[in-house]
Amino acid sequence: MGFYERQILPRVIDRVIRGGEFDRIRARVAAGLAGDVLEIGFGSGLNVPFYPRSLTRVRVVDPSLVGRSLAAKRLAASPVPVEFAGADAGVLPMADASVDAALSTWTLCTITDVRQALAEVRRVLRPGGALHFAEHGLSPDARVARAQHWLTPVQRRVAGGCHLDRPIDVLLADAGLDVVQLKTYYMPGPRAYGYIFEGIARSGG
Known about the structure:
Blueprint: H1 3-16, H2 20-30, E1 36-40, E2 57-61, H3 65-70, H4 72-76, E3 82-84, E4 99-105, H5 114-124, E5 125-136, H6 142-158, H7 168-174, E6 177-186, E7 195-203
Parallel strand pairs: 1-2, 1-4, 2-3, 4-5
Antiparallel strand pairs: 5-7, 6-7
């Protein structure tokens, strides 16, 4: 990981995906979380202000040390205990069936082995536990999808491995997670970058 990925990109992301519609989505996705929660792709803690105050704790996973530094003020203002639990969502340092819920926002696009990461999320969720998610991914519109496939190689280079064309609903189902709530829509802006999957997926018993 070079200087750009370590030092510059986390600060860019912290600025680009906060405020306005992003905050409204984060608030909706975090609502209903309860108990002991895992967040993958913690980044700079943009979800922290939206954690329900009643949470027991949140264990967070993210490779960026700069992101942790950027999160400091948000963490200081949060009534919810937050613990850093590792850097790799593909190898979670947690026991099977040990968390009540999980949270992922604008994260699954960048994880190198996303299938392994989702398998890990399912492993650590208690039976019936819920993954709350908001992710951008592959549009059902063929013209938009073609643009996403074409742009993804460049996007991966400039945005930390971000894929524009991952079929989020399919990936969740393939991981054995039951998508019980799903809303899809375009955010304002270029459609290739803003097709959103928002919802809840549950772990089986």
